[in-house]
């Protein structure tokens, strides 16, 4: 983004769609595995399932702003300015903001997936400690 190599709006829409599909596919697959592990723990060790492991990130990790590079050439267009150049600068600013949104979405997907993996690891560790798996 710093170099000004930005996707066009149709390309960005495609990237956004693929990213959402990827995040949803990973979540669907991993939630199935988490439910299986949770049911397995509950079946083998009912007392352990009363206190699930707390390994997920704090809520503020998901709502905290993700730093996106600033566009150094971007400037605020005032109401008095007009013309094609000012309109182009506004469009470029919106396009830059959309790139930032895609980066934030990718980072959020990464954080969510990391938490699902931590939770699965904690469930497996619970089973290992109970002597159910080696």
Task: Give your account of this protein's structure.
This protein is mainly α. It has one domain (9-71, 81-129). The protein is built from three helices and no strands. It starts with 8 loop residues before the first helix and ends in a 5-residue tail after the last helix. Residues 68-82 have a biased composition (Basic and acidic residues). Residues 51-82 are annotated as: Disordered.
N- and C-termini, Cα separation = 47 Å
Shape: elongated
| SSE run | HHH
Helix content: 55-70%
Q: SS-based structural class? A: mainly alpha
- DSSP helix count? 3
Low-confidence stretches: none
The number of distinct β-strands equals 0
Q: How many whole angstroms does the radius of gyration measure?
A: 22 Å
Integer average pLDDT: 77
Strand % is under 5%
Set out the fold topology:
Elements: H1 9-44, H2 59-63, H3 83-129
Helix pairs in contact: 1-3
Features:
134 residues, mainly alpha, 0% strand
Would you summarize the structure shown here?
Residues 68-82 have a biased composition (Basic and acidic residues). By secondary structure, the protein is an all-alpha fold.
């Amino acid at each position: 983004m710093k170099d000004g190599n930005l996707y066009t709006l149709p390309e960005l829409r495609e990237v956004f769609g693929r990213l959402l599909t990827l995040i949803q596919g990973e979540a669907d697959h991993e939630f199935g595995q988490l439910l299986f592990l949770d049911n397995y723990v509950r079946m083998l060790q009912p007392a352990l399932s009363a206190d699930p492991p707390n390994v997920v990130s704090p809520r503020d990790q998901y709502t905290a702003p993700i730093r996106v590079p600033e566009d150094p050439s971007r400037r605020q267009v005032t109401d008095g300015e007009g013309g094609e150049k000012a309109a182009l600068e506004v469009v470029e600013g919106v396009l830059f903001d959309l790139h930032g949104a895609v980066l934030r979405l990718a980072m959020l997907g990464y954080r969510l997936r990391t938490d699902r993996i931590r939770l699965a690891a904690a469930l497996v560790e619970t089973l290992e400690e109970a002597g159910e798996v080696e």
